């Protein structure tokens, strides 16, 4: 069974690995988009749609073929597992589909010419959420799980240390204990916020920071990562320090206000600059950062890019 949309279930009957039929579709779509198509059942469904004359798109937002061995997700994409998924199945799906959509140029280079780059964006509504108000103590932090970001936050450890040295506060959203370990700190030095479901609660938690520390190691997997963490912070008016890699450089060259650093001392010094910035200037920076997202990086503002990409798939399928 596969969720095709909220509230709808596709019930697929197989024989010898091929679908005998699919129940749950009242009217055959012109186009279907499948994300991270990595299991035998999913690729069988993808083939079935193609055989019915439906235009097919597969979407990938990570480099599944080079997940780091230290990543908790490594076994799920490289070895036999209960989910039955594998990165090689993703590669096969990319060859079958009429179009592959990805979020970065690094992913596009891997998947080849039948690829459209659709950078990650954030919902416009996140910018309209109530502001948590200024913190009494300057607060920097990160949101996510270190188990799926092994070693990444270690890169931003000098910035975390700079905030503490200056009398600021650190906060981890979802995985404060793992974050403290990555930063080489005592868990008591990192304030903990519980995991938040993606939506208003998640964006609200991030908006409670004064500064986002977006640490990423220089790995093959990470070179294909998008700038989503920077954008998630920015839509709540939170500026970021981020590694000087290809996706973040492209974002900055487009005029987006993000501080890029490439050395431990760079992380430390950049955090100190933010800490020492007067509150009124920080408030202005928050407004500029949020407006930059609203101007160029909302889902609603970029909907036409998705439409144009899907039209390419329709044209290739001769629909």
Task: Name the descriptors.
319 residues; alpha/beta; 6-stranded parallel sheet; 4-stranded parallel sheet; 12 helices
In the sheet with the most strands, the strands line up as: 10-9-8-11-12-13
* Gyration radius, in Å: 21 Å
Structural class assignment: alpha/beta
The helix count comes to 12
CA distance, first residue to last residue: 27 Å
Order of helices and strands: EEEEHEHHEHEEHEHEHEHEHEHHH
- The coarse overall form would be elongated
Mean pLDDT: 93
Total strand count, please?
A: 13
Determine the strand fraction and express it as a percent band: 15-25%
Largest sheet: 6 strands, parallel
Approximately how much helix is present in the residues?
Answer: 25-40%
Question: Which residues form runs of ≥5 with pLDDT under 50?
Answer: 1-7
Draw up the topology in text.
Elements: E1 2-5, E2 8-15, E3 18-23, E4 31-35, H1 40-51, E5 55-60, H2 74-78, H3 87-96, E6 99-102, H4 105-111, E7 115-117, E8 139-143, H5 157-165, E9 169-173, H6 176-183, E10 190-193, H7 200-207, E11 211-213, H8 228-234, E12 240-243, H9 246-253, E13 259-261, H10 264-276, H11 279-296, H12 303-316
Helix pairs in contact: 1-3, 5-10
